[in-house]
From TrEMBL:
One of its GO terms (molecular function) is lipid kinase activity. It comes from the Eukaryota. It comes from Amphimedon queenslandica (Sponge). InterPro entries: ATP-NAD_kinase_N, Diacylglycerol_kinase_cat_dom, Lipid_Phosphate_FormReg, NAD/diacylglycerol_kinase_sf. This is DAGKc domain-containing protein. PANTHER family: LD11247P-RELATED, SPHINGOSINE KINASE. GO terms for cellular component: cytoplasm; membrane. GO terms for biological process: sphingosine biosynthetic process. Residues 151-295 form the DAGKc domain. The lineage of its organism: Eukaryota, Metazoa, Porifera, Demospongiae, Heteroscleromorpha.
Length: 504
C-alpha cells in the first residue's frame, strides 16, 4: 500500500469520549476511514506511541450501532448505552475456511449530565459510522463520481414471495433480514407480498422508482426474472433497469445470489450473508439477455434449462412439499434414472466472433428508447459464421453465472456480469453415473468428454422432441428460442470488489 494511501486510512474522521462499561474506564472512540477503534485516552495524546486499542473493527465488518434507549445495566440514568454490531469473518477450527459471526461491543455515551444529550451524541455517532461505511462502499465498489456523492440512506422496496422455497420467506425476512436492515439504517419504504404469478412484474412496472434507491427480493430466481422484465417493460426502462437489486435466498432456486456469495467468498444460502451484501450499498453490474421465442420476448439474468434439467425444473414442481433444493435433487435423480434424449439443434456464434453480433434494436413508434433485443429472430436463417450442432441431447444448461442452485455449481469461472452464456450439454452417450456427478457437482467437462461446453453471446436452440424450456426457473413457450446477451445492463447490491467498473 502506498504511504499516502495508508495516511489517508489513518486519518481520524471523528473522535469522542465514550465509556467502556466492562472496564469502567473512559476511552476514546476513533472513527477512521476504514476502521473504528476504542482506545485509552492517554494513547491519543500528541507524541504518544500508536494507541493500543481496547477493541478495533474494520468498517467493512460493521452492521451498525444499536442504541438502547432503556439501559437497565448502565451506571446512571443519564447514560445512553449502545451496541456496536459487527459481522466478522472467523476461521473454522479444523478447515481453512471462514464463516461470519455476529458480535457486539458495548459503549456508553455519558459525557453530558442528561440522557437526551447523550442519546443525541450516540445518534450522531450512528450516523457518522453509517455515512463512512457507505462512503467506503461507494469508493470500493462503485466507480462513478455521482454515485460516490449520493450518500442518502438506503430506501428500499422489498418484494417477498411467500410461495417460494419452503414457503417461509416472510418469516425469514422479518426475523433475520429486517433487523439487519434496521441496524444498518436502511429504510424499508414498502413491503410487497406477492399474491400470484406475475404480481412482482406488474408491481415494478408502475411503481414510483424515484422514491427508492434499490429493490430487495426475498425469493428465488423466478421473482428476479419477473422484476427484470417489469423494469424493462417501463417507458423509462433505460434508467429503471439500473435500479440496484438486492437478493435474499428464500427460494428453491437461488442461483444468482449463490453465485454472488460464492464470488464474494462468503458462505452460500445463509440469509445473513446475503443481507450483508446489500446493507453498505456497494453495487456491481450484471448482464441481462434477450430471449425470443416465436410468440414472445423477455429478458433473463440467470440460466436456461432444456432436456433433462428443463423437465426437472417443471416436473419437480409436484415435489414442492420437499422444499428447498431437495426437490431438485429428488427430481434430478428420477430424471437421471429415466435418462431421456431430446432431439434438437443448437446454433451459436462462438464468443471470439462477438464483434459481429451487435444487437439490433426494435423500432418503437411510442418515442421510447428502443429496447435491446436479439440481432436475429427465430425465423431468420442462421448466419454463415455461426456453428450448428445437432443430436439427441440429454442435458442442456445455458448459464450466465457460476451456480445452478444453492449448492450446485455449474462452472466456478463464470463470473457475474462476464458478458457470456456458457452452454453445457451432453448427448445420449453420457452415462447415468456421469450425469449424477453433474447433479451433485459441476458437469466435469475436463474429466468426461461426454460433457461439452460452449462460450457464446448469441445462440438459437431449436428443440424437436417434446419437452420443456425454462428461463430463470420460469416455463416459456416450447419451440425455437433465440438468446442474446446484453452486457452490464443491470445492477446488483454486492460486496464483490471489481476495479474500473463502468456503471454508465
Ligand atoms: N403468492 C403466490 N402464489 C403462488 N405463486 C407465486 C406467488 N407469488 C409468486 N409466485 C410465483 O412463484 C414462482 C416461483 O418463485 P421463486 O422463484 O421466487 O421461488 P422458487 O421456490 O425458487 O421457485 P422455482 O424453483 O420454481 O423458481 C414464480 O413463478 C412466481 O411468479
Amino acid at each position: 500500500m502506498a504511504e499516502s494511501e495508508q495516511e489517508c486510512l489513518d486519518t481520524v474522521v471523528k473522535s469522542g469520549s465514550v465509556l467502556a462499561p466492562w472496564l469502567g474506564v473512559n476511552c476514546t472512540l476513533l472513527l477512521k476511514q476504514d476502521s473504528l477503534a476504542c482506545v485509552y485516552p492517554e494513547a491519543t495524546a500528541a507524541g504518544s506511541p500508536p494507541p493500543l486499542p481496547i477493541f478495533a473493527v474494520k468498517l467493512e465488518d460493521v452492521v451498525g450501532l444499536k442504541i438502547l434507549q432503556d439501559s437497565p445495566f448502565s451506571s446512571s440514568p443519564s447514560v445512553c448505552r449502545a451496541e456496536l454490531c459487527t459481522y466478522q469473518k472467523v476461521k473454522r477450527f479444523i478447515s481453512s475456511s471462514y464463516y461470519r459471526k455476529f458480535s457486539t461491543e458495548i459503549l456508553e455515551f455519558s459525557d453530558a449530565k442528561d440522557f437526551e444529550t447523550n442519546y443525541k451524541t450516540a445518534k450522531e455517532w450512528r450516523e457518522s459510522i453509517q455515512l463512512q461505511c457507505r462512503k467506503n462502499s461507494r469508493n470500493l465498489f462503485v466507480f462513478s463520481p455521482e454515485q460516490i456523492d449520493r450518500l442518502e440512506p438506503m430506501q428500499l422496496l422489498v418484494i417477498i414471495n411467500p410461495f417460494s422455497g419452503r414457503k417461509n420467506g416472510q418469516k425469514l425476512f422479518q426475523n433475520i433480514a429486517r433487523p439487519m436492515f434496521d441496524l444498518a439504517g436502511a429504510v424499508i419504504v414498502q413491503e410487497v407480498i406477492t399474491e400470484r404469478q406475475g404480481h412482482a412484474k406488474e408491481f415494478v412496472e408502475t411503481f414510483d422508482l424515484t422514491s427508492i434507491t434499490g429493490i430487495v427480493l426475498a425469493s428465488g430466481d423466478g421473482i428476479v426474472y419477473e422484476v427484470i422484465n417489469g423494469l424493462m417493460a417501463r417507458p423509462d426502462w433505460e434508467t429503471a433497469i439500473k435500479t440496484p437489486i438486492g437478493l435474499i435466498p428464500t427460494g428453491s432456486g437461488n442461483a444468482l445470489v449463490s453465485s454472488l456469495l460464492y464470488e464474494a467468498d462468503e458462505e452460500k444460502a445463509v440469509i445473513e450473508n446475503a443481507v450483508f451484501q446489500i446493507i453498505n450499498g456497494g453495487i456491481q453490474t450484471h448482464d441481462i439477455a434477450s430471449v425470443s421465442t416465436g410468440s414472445s420476448h423477455s429478458y433473463m439474468g440467470v440460466l436456461i434449462h432444456w432436456a433433462l434439467t428443463g423437465s426437472v425444473d417443471v416436473e419437480s414442481e409436484k415435489l414442492r412439499i420437499l422444499g428447498g433444493e431437495l426437490r431438485t435433487i429428488v427430481g434430478g435423480l428420477i430424471s437421471i434414472i429415466m435418462k431421456r434424449g431430446y432431439q434438437g439443434q443448437l446454433s451459436y456464434l462462438p464468443i471470439d466472433e462477438e464483434s459481429s453480433v451487435a444487437a439490433t434494436e426494435r423500432d418503437t413508434s411510442s418515442g421510447e428508447a428502443a429496447r435491446p433485443t436479439t440481432s436475429i429472430s427465430v425465423s431468420d436463417p442462421i448466419p454463415d459464421n455461426w456453428k450448428t450442432i445437432e443430436g439427441n441431447f440429454v442435458m442442456f444448461i445455458g448459464l450466465m453465472l457460476s451456480h445452478m442452485s444453492d449448492s450446485i455449481m455449474g462452472h466456478s469461472d463464470i463470473k457475474i456480469g462476464s458478458g457470456e452464456h456458457r452452454i453445457v450439454y451432453a448427448f445420449d452417450d453420457v452415462t447415468r453415473a456421469q450425469l449424477l456427478t453433474g447433479l451433485v457437482g459441476s458437469p466435469n467437462t475436463a474429466k468426461y468428454d461426454t460433457f461439452h461446453e460452449i462460450r457464446t453471446r448469441a445462440f438459437r436452440l431449436n428443440p424437436i422432441s417434446p419437452g420443456f424450456i425454462t428461463v430463470d426457473g420460469e416455463l416459456v413457450d416450447y419451440g425455437p428460442i433465440q438468446v442474446q446477451v446484453h452486457p452490464g445492463m443491470m445492477r446488483l447490491y454486492s460486496r464483490i470488489k471489481k476495479c474500473n467498473q463502468s456503471l454508465d
